[in-house]
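Mods, move this if it's the wrong board.
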Amino acid sequence: MTGERDRRGRPVPSGRLSRLGAFGKIAGGVAGGVLAESARRLAGGQRPRMSDLLLTPANVGRVAEQLSHLRGAAMKLGQMISMDAGDFLPAELTQIMARLRDRAHHMPPAQLQQVLAREWGKDWRRRFSRFDATPIAAASIGQVHRAVTPDRRDLAIKVQYPGVRASIDADVDNVATLLRLSGVLPKTLDIGPLLAEAKRQLHEEADYLREANQLDRFGALLADSPGYLVPAVDRAFTNSDVLAMTFAQGVSIESLVSEEQTIRDAAARSLIALVLRELFEFGLMQTDPNFANYRYEAASGRLILLDFGATREVSAATRDGYRALLGAGLSGDRAAVRDAAVAAGFLGIDAVSRHAALVDRMVDIILSELNREGPFDFGDRAFIGVLREQGMEIAADRATWHLPPIDTLFVQRKISGTALLCARLRARVDVREMVFDALRPPRQAV
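Not the wrong board. Structure tokens:
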């Protein structure tokens, strides 16, 4: 594993021109891929559509590799696409985009030394009895190193890649340009508000002092919950570009796929319970469901929660919208679900009016799954294929494309990503009963 990480060490392009050049390379590579695939299909007597030529595994692979090289906001947006699409991307494309979740290149030692000398001073190594130069994790905005202080504090230290904060706005604009040039998005769809919010949130994620404060908040909220472990911030080494916290020993949450059913079910139950508490109790949610943000402590069965950069307040309107939607779903009332989905912004009124029968069929499938007695089997994904086909049929009518409220988009991202992780674990959880409990009014003190 170490050897693989070492081979993937590549300097982060931090200058504006170098990052712009990388985007040009992405566009050029995709264009070349389109021409090659078009020629191949025409030679075979086919008349390919542009969308089919753009979303080939080869082209998606080119984009994934270049975004993992760029890191920063560009890679983060790619991760969002891979997580948010979930089961609705074709399987081969899902596998390729999944590279962006945990296969970032890391900084080579010389660049790391330069960054830490700038943050802590040139003699920074004297502050540690041990500092592992090879990162234990490398993600979109920073990489994590394990270190031990002379007084034996065992730390995980997240170091931000150089130039990330300064490149956020340009990276988001460049990704948006690629999407527009691809023709994937209809010209009538206004993604301006979404882009503005993406920039805002990414700037917040790049502020490690803010993340340290969110770590403290979640640590306090979950202090009396034995099923979770939130690392403690070490303020002596923390600033806006470096975040130090206690090191928590655990295994990848995805490694539980080989464990017995009871362990997988318990982990999934903890994941779902956390989402419900974030939404309805805390009004505060860590909205990034990347699988790498969870670890599992085998000795205790606790979930280790990592990366609180994407934490955001959940508005009362959003909470009320989910409460109404889930309540309607538990009642089994199709019309109430449809109306609640429109009111909350999940569905656009045009989609309902132009494709009423399809929408009703999709709602019926969801109601059937939600209200089935006993544990929900996340490993049984047969109904997803039916929903995908019906959803794609509606999506083909671009006049119905619709962006939900920004707050809802981020909350739904966490919900969808959690469901995807539970599916990966093939967990069986009585979600219906958990939702019932979450929607019950709090007990009045006697």
